[in-house]
């Protein structure tokens, strides 16, 4: 069974600033819901290979993705390893004004088996849906609230 998450937000920060925040994977544990660890393994030629650990209620799972960087407009996400049969998606950053943008997260994923689906199904869906909100809140913390 394939799941889809399609979440967007209008923010009072430039597309470039939002791109920079999302692209800073090592900072995720400080503000992304249920992200207990993040590690960048390699970063070169428009690609980042990184792992993220998701933990909730004593259950921990780690997954690794190859992120295809198209600065400053999008970050493609492709599964390398983890508790998924498939995982791919894209962050998009659409400029609306000098200090405003639309941030979009699109994810399609399928768990590798019934145990992974039972253990991670609710957590991953909740976390992925909350991620965009977390980035919006973090942008206000890092860049200040801009309501012009």
TrEMBL record:
Gene3D superfamilies: 3.30.530.20
Similarity comment: family membership: Belongs to the ribosome association toxin RatA family.
Domain annotation Coenzyme Q-binding protein COQ10 START: ranges: 13-136
Alphabetized InterPro entries for the sequence: COQ10-like (IPR044996), COQ10_START (IPR005031), START-like_dom_sf (IPR023393)
Coiled-coil features, chain-numbered ranges: none
Full protein name: Type II toxin-antitoxin system RatA family toxin
Record flagged with keyword Ribonucleoprotein: no
GO biological processes: cellular respiration
One family name in Pfam for this protein: Polyketide_cyc
Entry keywords, A to Z: Toxin-antitoxin system
Record GO terms (molecular function): ubiquinone binding
């Amino acid at each position: 069974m394939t799941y889809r998450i399609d979440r967007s937000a209008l923010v009072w920060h430039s597309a470039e600033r939002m791109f920079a925040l999302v692209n800073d994977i090592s900072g995720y544990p400080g503000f992304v819901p249920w992200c207990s660890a993040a590690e960048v393994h390699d970063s070169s030629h428009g690609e980042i290979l990184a792992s993220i650990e998701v933990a909730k209620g004593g259950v921990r799972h780690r997954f690794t993705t190859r992120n295809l960087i198209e600065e400053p407009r999008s970050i493609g996400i492709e599964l390398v390893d983890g508790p998924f049969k498939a995982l791919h998606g894209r962050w998009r950053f659409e400029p609306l004004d000098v200090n405003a943008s639309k941030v979009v997260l699109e994810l399609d994923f399928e768990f590798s088996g019934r145990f992974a689906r039972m253990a991670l199904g609710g957590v991953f869906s909740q976390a992925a849906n909350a991620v965009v909100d977390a980035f919006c809140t973090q942008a206000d913390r890092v860049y200040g609230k801009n309501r012009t």
